[in-house]
Design brief:
Helices cover 29% and strands 23% of the residues. It is built from 7 helices and 12 strands.
């Protein structure tokens, strides 16, 4: 059996480790991170050329099942996967990381996009901890606030005029996030609802410090695609088709 796992997330790597070597696994990474953490099994890097290209790849490589374990904000590949698997008649399962849930004491403001998040900053704080990833920084380029920008790789897009760049990769600790917020005198946190535990400590640190948090909501996902929330469930789904 040949399984294609889409995504370079922690869940995708964990699933590949559960399936390999008993099952042939190919993990597909987008190639946006310079030095990605590689999963077990075979790895391909780069796009497929849209849903048609992905469907052709599935047929050429005799793929028996596809797991969409992409990042919650990588919406294009999720829709491409739904179209491609329908065309190639290959079963598709989505492994979707649960989103974050408000806790007592949280001061969250929802935004539908990065642009809306930038527009909500006025009056919330002059020093911003921005953790939305390097690809969306242009939405904040014209803002007057000072930003602490955390990113895995150095951005190659317009950035805010007043900012400090912090290159770092999770998982992060609560003590570490507390220290960053205190040392940089952060007044507001801006993040995407990426879910998971690796980057959640910043939310607890912001809650403790009484900071407002602007949370960019997740984009829509394809309808009709079966989904699970754990790697064990995804592995069971694969084994049931072996």
């Amino acid at each position: 059996m040949h399984v294609l796992i889409l995504g370079g997330t922690a869940e995708a790597r964990a699933l590949a480790g559960l399936l390999h070597p008993g099952t042939r696994v190919t993990s597909s990474l987008a190639g946006r991170v310079a030095a990605p953490r590689l999963p077990a099994g075979e790895v391909r890097i780069g796009g497929f050329g849209g849903p048609e290209g992905l469907a052709e790849w599935l047929r050429e490589h005799a793929v028996d099942a596809v797991i969409d374990a992409t990042h919650p904000f990588a919406e294009r590949i999720s829709f491409n996967a739904a179209r491609a698997t329908a065309t190639a008649h290959v079963p598709l399962l989505a492994l979707r990381r649960p989103g974050w849930v408000r806790s007592e004491g949280d001061d969250w403001r929802d935004a539908a996009s990065l642009e809306e998040a930038a527009g909500l900053l006025g009056g919330l704080g002059d020093r911003v901890f921005l953790t939305t990833g390097r690809l969306g920084l242009a939405a904040f380029a014209e803002r007057p606030e000072w930003f602490l920008v955390r990113s895995v790789d150095a951005p190659d897009v317009p950035m805010p005029a007043r900012c400090e760049l912090l290159l770092d990769r999770g998982p992060f600790t609560l003590d570490g996030e507390r220290e960053l917020i205190a040392r940089h005198r952060i007044g507001v946190l801006v993040t995407k609802d990426s879910g998971g535990a690796a980057t959640a400590p910043k939310l607890a640190a912001a809650r403790e410090a009484g900071l407002p948090v602007i949370v960019v909501r997740r984009p829509p996902v394809p309808e009709g695609v079966p989904a699970v929330t754990s790697t064990d469930e995804a592995a069971a789904w694969v084994h049931a088709r072996a």
